[in-house]
Design goal:
Chain A is built from 13 helices and two strands, in the order H-H-E-E-H-H-H-H-H-H-H-H-H-H-H. Chain A is mainly alpha-helical. Chain A folds into two domains: 40 residues; 246 residues, MetI-like (MetI-like fold), CATH 1.10.3720. In chain A, helix 12 packs antiparallel against helix 13. The radius of gyration of chain A is 25 Å and the shape is flat. Among the domains of chain B are: 189 residues, 3-Layer(aba) Sandwich (D-Maltodextrin-Binding Protein, domain 2), CATH 3.40.190.10; 92 residues, no CATH class. In chain B, helix 9 crosses helix 10. The chains are: A mainly alpha, B alpha/beta. The interface between A and B is large, with 36 and 40 residues.
């Protein structure tokens, strides 16, 4: 059997040569790092001195690592804070853009999509001007409101350096940044729904909400699932937003400002603990894998 | 096949064996020049990695260097982004590192400990007493020398003369940190709350804590690498910082942000606690403010205490994989250990020289128009040799970040119980880093 396979491969070797570039590149840049970092997750390595095998030691340390646990908790909280409003916003905007009467649709679409193609450095500068405690736009506006309605007067808020406000501030930034992206996905989904369903429903006397509930939402489910998985993965590995808003984890509100992506980055590329970082990444990707599986299962059981 | 396989294999083996031999012979050997090559005969390419003004400064030196070593070709590579990670990668891979590398003072020890830098002890130890001891210590590991201090950051307070005059504060009256806080309160009051005294970002407190701790002679680790942060010196520094925070004189502006650089030109912030190199930043980012600046010596923590500290700087090292170590060393020696080269770099690029013999140069006593005629160079050089040594470890960066996070949580928690916070910080750090606690620590009774 094995010989037969080899012979068949040899017989068709020219075709294999043609498809080999992908596999070679994938092997070097995809598979090798995956396997190597899996191996590293059982070792201690600073990138320079020898690799030391520690077995499950890294994973044991993870359980007791307060920063790791805090980073997971922060990741979760940020996800909960930003994903629902982002989904709602994206869906509402997608519906609006999908209506027939709206003019200048292209401009709106481009405007909503703009934030997620804007370089993060630019975003960081703009948002640091908005969120600054002493001279930020947001605190200035809140201060003005307080001047006009004295009962609403509040102290300036340290948006990016206080435990309480950091996560909402970041969530706001995330909603602003990713709503457009999800909106475009949902818009594509909406446009994929045949108008015949709506016509039939209208003839049967279904109102706006009934049409929404019985046609739009069920048919959009695959798009929602896709967006949910992408957002889940995006939340877990979110990095640049947090990195720039906390100056690489130095300027944020201490422990409550680190998320998983930032902690992973700092552990590997600032502290040079590649083994420990790998074990962290593998642990989490295992859970992300489980969660994605769960979302897909849920979807399957419903249909 | 035209090429004989056997012969090819022989060649491959030969090359491998020779390479291995060369590697083994070259690995970890301290650099010895026996006998040294004559300057005119030294023939090599030297690649240097450095960042911003430092790179420009080395480039500026190259013609001077070539007058003595005409056959050495120096190429300065100024590649700012991620330079530390790329350096690490090249060290790990064994190829691709430059011949001469610039490192931050506080990151030098972690590289020295890897054994991937050239041991310079034999050639460099004669210069030991030409540099301030605390800066020299940062280039040492296990009694061996791995780098040479380049520019250093003796600390001071940069202030805007116009603001001090308008608020009627005499800069000379600031002697202790308490005076500094009171002056800050006055300025806040007189400006109607618009002008804060300093930038004190709640999430970056370690940036101020560390130099002040060094000023007071405290340590984060002791000489043996055990944690020693729970000390009366740390508490003194925390007391100073707490007063600043309580009186509300610190603007919550993160360092090096757009907003921070903009504050140089506005009236939002009156002073900056920084190293001598900060003058270069002001000149670059706020050239129009020339003449409005002055420098006060760092206020003392204890009566009669030291009025300077170490606010960072950089070093030059030679990676072990460098092919022409002699040439690389000659370049470092020329750039950092000769008075002319260091003075030239100071003159042209404001890199405050670590080399002590430069400090007697008349250049230090010239009045500086940028500082309204003040002689800041001389002022910064005072007591530089008295700055206490700080013992740094390989996990320094991680430690700093952890301290930072703990402090900002403490501030968010209304700065309650600094003693308890420090004790807990030390204990958690010791578990995290797997290192012991110094017998001098207050946690263990503070036997000192």
């Amino acid at each position: 059997m094995g010989r037969g396979l080899c012979r068949r491969v040899w017989a068709h070797r020219h075709f294999y040569v043609f498809i080999s570039p992908f596999f070679i590149l994938f092997g070097v840049f995809g598979l090798y790092p995956l396997v190597f970092s899996f191996y590293l997750s059982f070792t201690q390595w600073d990138g320079l001195t020898e690799v030391t095998w520690v077995g499950l030691g890294n994973f044991r340390n993870l359980v007791h690592d307060e920063l790791f646990l805090a980073s997971l908790w922060n990741t979760l909280v940020i996800g909960v804070l930003y994903i629902p409003p982002m989904f709602l916003g994206a869906f509402v905007f997608a519906l609006a853009l999908n209506t027939g009467w709206l003019k200048l649709r292209g401009i709106f679409r481009a405007a909503f999509f703009m934030p997620c193609v804007t370089p993060m450095v630019v975003v960081a500068i703009v948002f640091s001007l908005i969120y600054s405690e002493d001279s930020g736009l947001l605190n200035y506006a809140l201060g003005k409101v307080g001047e006009i309605f004295p009962p609403l007067r509040i102290e300036p808020i340290a948006w990016l350096t206080s435990d309480r406000w950091f996560k909402p501030a970041v969530a706001l930034l995330l909603v602003w940044r990713w709503t457009g992206y999800n909106m475009v996905l949902m818009l594509a989904g909406l446009q994929g729904i045949s108008t015949e369903y709506y016509e039939a429903a209208r003839i049967d006397g279904a109102g706006v909400f009934q049409r929404m509930w019985h046609i739009t939402l069920p048919l959009m489910r695959p798009v929602f699932v896709f967006c949910a998985i992408m957002s889940l993965i995006g939340t877990v590995y979110m990095f640049d937003e947090i990195f720039v808003m906390t100056q690489g984890g130095l300027g944020g509100p201490g422990v409550s400002g680190i998320n998983f992506g930032l902690y992973l980055f700092n552990t590997s590329f600032a502290d040079f603990k590649f083994g420990y970082a790998s074990s962290m990444a593998y642990t989490l990707s295992f859970f992300v894998f489980l969660a994605s599986l769960l979302i897909l299962r849920l979807r399957k059981s419903e249909t | 096949m035209f090429l004989c396989f056997d012969r090819l294999r022989c060649w491959v083996w030969a090359v491998l064996v020779v390479t291995l031999g060369v590697c083994l012979w070259a690995w970890g050997e301290p650099l010895v020049l026996d006998p040294p090559t004559a300057p005119g005969d030294l023939d090599a390419d030297i690649e240097v990695w450095a960042w911003n003004i430092a790179a420009g400064s080395l480039e500026h030196l190259t013609p001077m260097f070539n007058e003595i070593y005409p056959r050495c070709r120096v190429r300065v590579n100024m590649n700012g982004t991620n330079v530390q990670s790329r350096f690490l990668l090249s060290l790990a891979a064994g190829v691709g590192a430059p011949d001469v590398m610039q490192l931050q003072v506080r990151e030098t020890p972690r590289y020295s400990m890897t054994g991937k830098l050239t041991d310079l002890t034999e050639v460099a130890k004669k210069y030991e007493h030409d540099f301030p001891p605390s800066f020299w210590q940062d280039c040492m590991h296990d009694g061996r020398v791995y780098g040479i201090p380049w520019d250093i950051g003796p600390g001071g307070i940069f202030y805007k003369r116009s603001i001090f005059e308008a608020c009627g504060v005499d800069p000379e009256s600031i002697v202790t940190w308490d005076d500094y806080v009171s002056a800050g309160v006055t300025i806040m009051k007189k400006s109607g709350g618009k002008t804060k005294m300093l930038c004190l970002p709640r999430g970056m407190l370690v940036e101020l804590f560390e130099p002040l701790l060094q000023q007071s002679g405290g340590q984060i680790f002791d000489k043996e690498g055990r944690l020693a942060i729970n000390s009366k010196e740390s508490l003194q520094v925390l007391r100073v910082m707490r007063r600043m925070l309580e009186m509300g004189i610190g603007a919550n502006i993160n360092f090096w942000t757009h907003e921070f650089l903009a504050s140089l030109k506005s009236r939002a912030v009156a002073t900056y606690v920084a190293g001598a190199w900060f003058g270069g930043t002001i000149r670059d980012d706020a050239p129009t403010t020339s003449g409005d600046w002055g420098v006060i010596r760092l206020p003392e923590i204890e009566p009669g205490g030291l009025r300077t500290s170490n606010f960072g700087g950089s070093t030059l090292v030679i990676p072990d994989q460098c092919k022409n170590k002699e040439a690389a060393w000659r370049f470092i020696e020329f750039a950092l250990c000769t008075k002319e080269a260091q003075i030239e770099q100071f003159r042209a690029f404001e890199l405050y020289p670590a080399l002590l013999s430069t400090h007697s140069d008349p250049f230090f006593d010239e009045p500086e128009p940028f500082y309204g005629g003040q002689k800041t160079r001389r002022q910064f050089s005072l007591d530089i040799d008295k700055i206490p040594t700080m013992y740094r470890t390989s996990n320094w960066v991680e430690t700093e970040r952890y301290i930072n996070q703990t402090f900002s949580r403490w501030v968010n928690d209304r700065m309650k119980d600094p003693e308890g916070m420090l004790a807990q910080l030390e204990e958690k750090l010791s578990r995290r880093l797997g290192c012991g606690i110094s017998p001098g620590s207050l946690s263990l009774g503070g036997r000192d």
